[in-house]
Fold this sequence. Notes:
By secondary structure, the chain is an alpha+beta fold. The chain contains 8 helices and 5 strands. α2 (about 25-40) packs antiparallel against α6 and α6 packs across α8.
Amino acid sequence: MPVHESDSPPLSRVQDILAHTADITDFLRQFTTEIAEFLSTELDPVWCAVTLLREKRTGTMVSSDPDAQVLDELQTSFLDGPCLTAIRENTVCRVGDTHDDPRWPDYLPAAAQRGVRSILGVAFEVGDEPGTGAALNIYSTQPHSFSDEITSTIRREVHQASSALQLAVRLTRRQETEANLRAAMVSRTPINLAVGIIMGQNQCTQEEAVEILKTASNHRNIKMRDLAEDIVGRTNRQPAKTHYDP
């Protein structure tokens, strides 16, 4: 018989949690903690974590317990498991007993050695961005812990939380794009300034100045950016600075 039943009231606090947390990480940490508390019993403590897959990079965003973090990282090291499958297939993966489930033959025995008997992986809806997905991962020390009723309850909670996570993924992507652009600007600033200096000194075109800089870089066997910084430093008497519009 399942350890966890749906006779307790549903969580239904996603909006309240979101309204009282500072960012998506805090939101998901409290979300996983409340899910774990809702499902745990004295005989069967439950651990939760959220795994995020982005552009072939997989990592644990938050966890309710260090054990959940370890189990998530273990699954990632095997490159497969119920939670990663839930992400890839945008579905629910339920393991009744790690001792006799034939799927994921590398990961499940390793999870069983750490005292895990049943696992529930529920995918978040994070939009249609390529290579992006996430799942709530729930680990139990007892076999067959998650009934159909409790699984449906968790699916509803994950569905409610999905819009917040989807927004966070989009914001994170935008912030990363802006950071990459800023880094590229910082990297190009001394080169662009050095090209301008060479143009003035040699009365040449931009293309010719770039070739002069490249040739000098090759002859001196140093990176073009380092050579450019040296030229700018000697001319400007201080390192080049990148300025952004406010």
